[in-house]
Amino acid sequence: MPHEPLLVAILGPTGSGKTALSLALAERFHGEIVNCDSVAIYREFSIGTAKPTKKEQARALHHLFDSIGPESYTTAGEYSRQARQVLSDIRGRGNLPIVVGGTGLYLRALIDGLFPGPERSEELRERLRSISSAKGPQYLHRILRRLDPTAATKIHANDVPKTIRAIEVSLAAHRPITEQWKSGREALQGFRLLRVGLDPPRADLYERINRRVQAMFEAGLVEETSQLLKTYGMSALPLGSIGYKQVVQLLEGDISPETAVAAVRQAHRNYAKRQLTWFRREPDVNWLSGFGDEKVVQERAIALVEKQL
């Protein structure tokens, strides 16, 4: 019986070299790269997401970057459906799919599946967004606490999109979302999965994050954010994400340029820690750690893939 085709998933914290590794593997093994970052899917958000440049994207086929508009919102389940279709297309072309990105929930949705929740109701969402605008996110979170206390403990009170989705699902299905989380999930079929995790030394990682943030500001992060704010206002949801959120505070005069740079660096370092905590719970990860030399890491990853092919 022939082997199922291989799927490589590159995971790890921000700034760990995932993009460079994905390109090295794609060029070596006729690969196509599939985004697994919840902010890089948005059009017009480029500098602050550190998505691959046009030159980098020309080196291999890239998918699910710039795939939705700035005012749109997508769920992990919707991402999973789109990504699975992309993986099926790549398999049909006989190429190696390489999933890369730092959003752990998206990766889990893609590989393990999520519960089959009800369809989105834009009418209900708009009402809930209006309530949040008028009375604040804490009021919305109290509604969720009444409907599903367990879900409320897992969703931050300021995370309005997740709070709205949890309320929506609980109301539509007439039972708490946490009960539905336990219902059947449909795992990804038709691939052999190789997880490759990047875990550089912490001091090296933080130094790379600091340099990357400085480069973002030098490349025009403030100007990019200013233009997005002018065009969409805060209806562009990614303006609340790391980097953009702090620059919005700068543009509104709440913090100084020096404070903004320091705040973005700190936020990225904190996020990297959270990502590592999440990804260490993933099973069967081939961790590549302890190397300051990116080429050494890439060579080890290439060897891992060659063993599987």
Task: Please give a quick description of this structure.
With 309 residues, the chain is α/β, with parallel strands linked by helices. The chain has helices at residues 18-29, 54-57, 76-93, 104-112, 122-135, 137-147, 149-154, 160-173, 177-181, 202-219, 221-232, 244-251, 257-279, 294-308; strands at residues 6-11, 31-35, 62-63, 96-100, 192-199, 285-289.
Mind explaining what this structure looks like?
The protein has 309 residues and is α/β, with parallel strands linked by helices. The protein has 2 domains: 233 residues, P-loop containing nucleotide triphosphate hydrolases (Rossmann fold, 3-Layer(aba) Sandwich); 60 residues, Histone, subunit A (Orthogonal Bundle). Helix content is 55%, strand content 10%. It is built from 14 helices and 6 strands. The protein has a 6-stranded parallel β-sheet with strand order 3-2-4-1-5-6, sandwiched between helices. Strand 2, helix 2 and strand 3 form a beta-alpha-beta unit. The radius of gyration is 20 Å and the shape is globular. The model has no long low-confidence stretch (mean pLDDT 91).
Task: Provide key terms for this protein.
about 300 residues; alpha/beta; Rossmann fold; Histone, subunit A; 2 domains; six-stranded parallel sheet; 14 helices; 6 strands; about 55% helix; globular
Model regions low in confidence, pLDDT < 50 over at least 5 residues: none
Fraction of residues in β-strands? 5-15%
Question: In one word, what is the shape?
Answer: globular
* Number of helical segments with 4 or more residues: 14
CATH fold type of the largest domain: Rossmann fold
Number of domains: 2
Distance between the termini: 15 Å
Q: For the report, how would you describe the main beta sheet? A: 6 strands, parallel
CATH superfamily of the largest domain: P-loop containing nucleotide triphosphate hydrolases
- Spatial extent as radius of gyration: 20 Å
Architecture (CATH level 2) name of the largest domain: 3-Layer(aba) Sandwich
Identify the CATH class of the largest domain: Alpha Beta
Q: pLDDT average, as an integer?
A: 91
